[in-house]
Amino acid sequence: MFELRAVGTVQSQLSDPALAPRQGDEGGPEAVLVFDEDMLEAARDLGPGSEVFVLTWLHLARRDVLSVHPRDDPANPLTGVFATRSADRANPIGLHRVTVVAAEGTRVRVRDLEAIDGTPIVDVKPVLRPDGR
Amino acid sequence: MFELRAVGTVQSQLSDPALAPRQGDEGGPEAVLVFDEDMLEAARDLGPGSEVFVLTWLHLARRDVLSVHPRDDPANPLTGVFATRSADRANPIGLHRVTVVAAEGTRVRVRDLEAIDGTPIVDVKPVLRPDGR
Question: Domain of B109: which CATH number?
Answer without folding.
Answer: 2.40.30.70
